[in-house]
Write a structure and sequence with these properties.
38% of the residues are buried. A four-stranded parallel β-sheet has the order 1-2-3-4. Strands 5-6 form a two-stranded antiparallel ribbon. The protein has a single domain, classed as 3-Layer(aba) Sandwich (Rossmann fold). It is an alpha/beta fold. It contains six helices and six strands; from the N terminus they run αβαβββββαααα.
């Protein structure tokens, strides 16, 4: 299904994006979400964080069983993952080139406020053949080009494992990814490998573990050293 949420120039309102998410959860608008789509691709993003309306809409729809694959953004900086890619339950996608190196434009984590790992995975996003206006095709680059690869992989996994939850599909894509020696906040778990993900013998509902932030309650710190305990007297004996 294709839901048009943006204008022809590629821009639009967050309310329209949320309306598209709600329609994906209830395609015929009858209030019954049992006919929801299985996988959603969102090659879009804007300012915001994990608790803004767009991200909350994604997380709420994920609870219904929908897998959301969302572009990380194209700022190329750390702490710059866009919304709704910052959503806690989304599979946020970064871009790599043909050599599986992180693209210079690919937005990096961690997320604002929660400081969690994003993106979760990466996919080819440099010089990807794509459709253009007026029935044309051309090469484009961006995390918007990488995200459909992951959405397609998620759809294949859902077709193979009908009972897998969105969290299990996310976990499989992360664990099955081709690990590269690059910063995790840039490439995530690695470049996706759908065959490896499909062949995993076991999946769980916890794709990643977040230990949170250490509370900093004072602006300045002073060093303190605990005195060393006195050594007990050594016993001596004649040899």
């Amino acid at each position: 299904m294709a839901f048009k949420a943006l204008h022809a120039n590629g821009s639009g309102s967050e309310s329209d994006v949320i309306a598209a998410i709600e329609r994906a959860a209830d395609p015929n608008g009858d209030g019954d979400t049992s006919d929801h789509v299985d996988v959603v691709n969102l090659s879009l993003g804007g300012s915001g964080g994990p608790d803004d309306p767009g991200s909350r809409a994604v997380d709420n729809a994920t609870k219904l069983g929908i897998v959301f694959c969302i572009a990380a953004g194209n700022s190329g900086k750390y702490h710059s993952v866009s919304s709704p890619g910052a959503a806690r339950q989304a599979i946020t996608v970064g871009a790599v080139d043909s050599g599986d190196s992180v693209a210079s434009f690919s937005s990096r984590g961690p997320t604002p406020k929660t400081m969690t790992m994003k993106p979760e995975v990466s996919a080819p996003g440099v010089s990807i053949t794509s459709s253009l206006p007026n029935n044309k095709y051309g090469a484009l680059s961006g995390t918007s080009m990488a995200t459909p690869h992951v959405a397609g992989a998620a759809a294949l996994l859902k077709a193979l494992h009908h009972d897998w939850t969105p969290a299990q599909i996310k976990m499989a894509l992360m664990v099955g990814s081709a690990l590269r020696n690059q910063e995790v906040m840039a490439i995530g778990a690695g470049r996706i490998d759908v065959a490896a993900a499909a062949g995993l013998p076991l999946v769980t509902d916890t794709p990643s573990i977040d230990f949170g932030l250490d509370a900093i309650e004072q602006a300045t710190w002073s060093r303190a050293r605990r005195p060393r305990p006195a050594s007990p007297p050594r016993s001596r004996r004649r040899r």
